[in-house]
Amino acid sequence: MMEHPNRKLQTHRPILLLSPMLLLKPMLLQRSNLSITPMLLLRPMLVLILVIAGMTPQKIFGQDAPTPPPMPQVSAVVGDQSVTLYWDDSAERHYDPFFESLVVYEQRVAADIFEEVYANPYNFEGYRVYKSTDPEFLDALRITDNLGNPERLVYEASFDLINSINQYHPASQNGQRIWMGSDNGITRIWEDNNLINGKTYYYAVVSYTHGDALPSLPLPVDPLNPEVILPNEVYRVPPLESLIDIEIRPNGEVITGINVVKVVPRAPSAGYIEPVNPEPVQLSGTGSGDIMIDAIDPGKLLIGHRYEISFEDTLVEGTTGDPELITKNFTLRNQTTGETLFEEEESFDRELPVREGFRLAFGDLVRRVAVDAENSFWVTGQSAPIHDFSFAVSSRTPTAFDYEIEFFDEPTRTSRVFTRGSTTFPESIVNFIVTNTITGEEIDFGYFANPLLPRDFRAVAYLSEDRVLIGGAGGVILESSNGGETWTPVESGVSVRIRDFEFVDPQNGFAAGRGGVVIKTTDGGASWSSPLATNTETNLTDLFFLDQNTGFVSGEGGLILKTTDGGTTWESLETGITRALNRIHFVDENTGFASGFVTVLKTTDGGSTWQTISVGTVANFTALTFSDDLNGFVGGTAGRISRTTDGGTTWAVLDAGIGVNINQINFISAQTGWLTGSNGALWKTTDGGTTWTRQESGTADELFGVDALNGERVIAVGANDRRIRTFNGGDSWTSSEVFNQFRSAFDDNGIPRSDVIYFLEEIDGVPGDESTGLIDTWSVSLIARSASSSGGLTVNPAAGDQLVLSTLKPFTEADLFEFEIRSENVPSVEETLGADILDDIRVVPNPYLVTHIAETSPGDRQIHFTNLPASCEIRIFTVAGQLVQTLDVNNPFDQDRYIWDLKTKDGRDLAYGVYIYHVTAPGVGEKTGRFAVIK
Fold first, then answer.
1. Per-residue confidence (pLDDT) for residue 20, from 0 to 100
2. Exposure string over 869-902, b if 16+ CB within 10 A, otherwise e
């Protein structure tokens, strides 16, 4: 801020402005060789004379005047009833020293202190396109002043910077205010259509400034002076346009300058083949984004020239404060000539100028490393869909690589000890590897085994001496073919906890779990059906089948379902309770029992009705079994067990001395059985349950399910993926190796939980972990879906599955692209043309009158032969057969016509009458026709 105690808000030094709206009169234009401006006032005459004399505004007024911007270099590409204009960007660097010290207004900031607000000397604002069929642009002169005098040209198109400098400039000149644009953005290519082929058009592209206008045209606010200030009192220097560079010589010859083009639209020659754009090829690197080469002016393309696009990258501070890799700039070189067309250009989003006939453009450019969701996916042989996944940037710097996670059915890798924030994740044995697919190398990773993710096994089915199935949280089913020594995942098709198996024979069985899920197998558990139609989403707890057709399932809320057709349909039975039922068992087709929370039920009519019975104690009864028709047991919390020896008519409490929660009781014979419970509890009876002996399980994990093949071979499963086995009746137990399988599942509250994999990598220049130097770059987790979700049930990955993870990468120094201009990139014609194409040849106009719309001036005489092949000969005869003229046609491929000036072979004007033309196209054929010349 500067002190100006004697300055007032509107105090400015006097400025003599050359108005930018002066248009010289047509007669002056015709007699003078000069450049004109479309916005120049007719007065004062002195200024007119000086301008005509070649003086600039600076010469007229001294250096204290604004400067028009440079004229853009304009080129044109004609087409069929169209023209495409394109121009360079030289005007966009226009800097006007006049505005360096121009104070637009002063803003009072204190009683005697003002802040000066300056104009912007970088004064380029936009482009305007003017069009005319007259070289003097007289038919575009349609904007009048306040007296009705035509003074300004009407533009066909206008493009301006998106900078909030728009609408009309406040300064008025003869009742006119200059339009500054609509913030529609800069473009340097414009196409005009619906033109008349053969007619001459003139186009001018001018650049213009914004004068002293500031973004949004702010006005000073003076709390000490309530006077209303109008915009035109503040903004007084209107925009200027560059000149229209055209010269009309005394003989009528028109000379166009750098920003004016003269064009004649035309159709392409017969058999014309549209060129295709060159295709860049990525020679190296992995950057993401589209690079387009648009052939704007095929006639200027250099066939056989090779071009190279290279990039520079840099590190910037990311949102987390850590460095992020971004693309800094690109360079485009003509490798054939060695010329650099763009050097270290940092503007990827702007429309680039045309170079050597083509325009380079970038699309879907990636400025920072990001997830490529479209190209990240599962590769699996499972019939059920795998869980959705979340692939995301971790807490540190992401890397520009692609990855693949491959899953196995056995322990494969050990994760690294890894600290994230205040949490340290220990080593974990896992069943997958992570590979950087760009380098082809495995990478390290950290593993978060989510403690809220259920990892228990609940169900066991010992089917034969070697074959065992276990099932548990997340729909996991494992099979063993060696009695439990090793395990292989089985595709279950579900992701809910499996609570129980029930096999009626070694091949036919069922599994039940949360969410009302019941699945069926007919091949000993090697494959499983889709969930059966239980018509409930209630969590199921236990299964019991009398035979292949008749079975029962228990669940929460007092639910009992019955099927009599092998699970195809299910009937809900009325139990009269709403408490959870944990177990169900039938001793025959009529008599059955169900146990649950402080409840034991009995039925004697096959489940049609149920009655609550007393078993002599109260507990959450989580175990229920019968060793034969008469002897049965219920067990539950705090080691409470009740026993019946009369088929459930009476029950007595059994003092077994267990003392821990009992989860399952299973008898292999009338005398021998095992029970499992909390704290690794494993008890055995050999006297029909009268006494129980604790066995050393070797684990403190809670054990849930137990099953035996005989008195020697037993499997028990429990929490934390625990699996233990014995081949000697329990004298000793062996635990299977426990490893983490990447998974997701619903917890007991129905919330999806997931493990997380953190990719650990080294990044040059970025400090990592003190001990390893590694940084967590990406994280991957799973998102389980239930059967009732919109996408349906999903499952965990299994052996053989692969998760492909791709990233969107900015272009870096490693990226190199190349393209070559080939023959297919420029116009061509078919090598073999049919004679029928000559049928389209026409003479325009026919008949020929004294003047025609396509003629540029009344003195011109011409007719057009159209739809010609690129190479042919036209001979013109009188009706008497006398040769009048021979025209050799060698057109470019994009031109279909020959314009004849109606001169005979002797140089004389063609007389009125009827004439015959004969077109001969080598290798194509001949065409004969007539035309007339009349008064």
1. 34
2. bbebebebeeeeeeebbebebebebbbbbbbbeb
Burial of 330 (0-12, 13-18, 19+ CB in 10 A): buried
Q: Bridge partners of 83?
A: 78, 192
User: Please, which contacts does 699-704 make with residues 24 or more away whose CB atoms are closer than 8 Å?
Assistant: 699/724, 699/735, 702/456, 702/663, 702/677, 702/678, 703/663, 703/676, 703/677, 703/678, 704/456, 704/457, 704/458, 704/663, 704/664, 704/676
Q: 787 falls in which pLDDT band (50, 70, 90)?
A: low
pLDDT at 32 over 70: no
Strand (E) or helix (H) holding 48 = helix 45-52
The two structure tokens encoding residue 26: 């047509």
Assigned token pair, 280: 């860049």
pLDDT at 367 (0 to 100)? 80
Give the containing element (helix H, strand E) for 50.
helix 45-52
**By the 8 A CB rule, do 623 and 663 touch?**
yes
Read off the pLDDT of each residue in 630-652 and give the average, rounded to a whole number: 96
CA nearest 383: which of 253, 298, 492?
492
**Distance (Å, rounded) from C-alpha 856 to C-alpha 79?**
19
| Of 741, 661, 210, nearest in space to 472 by CA | 741
Task: Tell me if residue 234 falls in helix, strand or coil.
Answer: helix
Kindly report, residue by residue over 360-405, the tens digit of the pLDDT. Answer: 999 988 888 889 999 999 999 888 889 999 999 886 678 889 999 9
Contacts of 92 (CB under 8 A, 6+ apart): 124, 186, 207
Q: Distance of alpha carbon 535 from its chain centroid, rounded?
A: 40
3-state SS, residue 190: strand
Asked which of 494-508, 704-718, 736-750, 884-898 is least confident by mean pLDDT, the reply is 736-750
Q: Which residue type sits at 884?
A: V
CA angle 142–143–144, rounded 5-degree value: 115
- Say yes or no to pLDDT of 49 above 70: no
Contact 803, 434 (CB under 8 A): no
347, 292 contact by CB (below 8 A): no
Q: β-strands 377-379, 802-805: how paired?
A: antiparallel
DSSP 754-781: E-EEEEEE--TTS---TTT--EEEEEEE
Mean pLDDT of 225-245: 91
**Angle at the Cα of 553 from the Cα atoms of 551 and 554, rounded to 5 degrees:** 150
Contact 87, 72 (CB under 8 A): yes
Predicted confidence at residue 54, as pLDDT, reads: 40
831-933: in CATH 2.60.40.3080: yes
Residues 6 or more apart from 650 whose CB is under 8 A from it?
644
> Which residue(s) pair with 467 in the sheet?
none
The pLDDT tens digits of the residues spanning 811-842 come to 999 999 999 999 999 888 777 777 788 988 99
Taking residues 717-732, what's their average pLDDT? 95
Q: pLDDT tens digit string along 861-884?
A: 889 999 998 889 999 999 999 999
Task: Please choose, from the candidates 201, 149, 126, the residue with its C-alpha nearest in 3D space to the C-alpha of residue 22.
Answer: 149
Chain mean position to CA 316: 23
Q: What is the DSSP string of 497-541?
A: PEEEEEESSSS-EEEEEGGG-EEEESSTTSS-PSPP-----SPEE
Residue 293, φ and ψ in degrees, nearest 5? -115, 110
- CA dist., res. 626 & res. 543, Å (int): 14
Give residue limits of the domains in the chain. Answer: 2-263, 275-369+812-825, 396-449+746-796, 452-532, 831-933
- What amino acid is encoded at 388 in this protein? D
What's the per-residue H, E or C state across 578-595?
CCCEEEEEECCCCCEEEE
pLDDT in tens, 589-619: 999 999 999 999 999 999 999 999 999 999 9
Round to the nearest angstrom and report the end-to-end CA distance of the chain.
79
Q: Quick one: pLDDT band at residue 1, thresholds 50, 70, 90? A: very low
Q: How far apart are CA 772 and CA 762, in angstroms?
A: 9
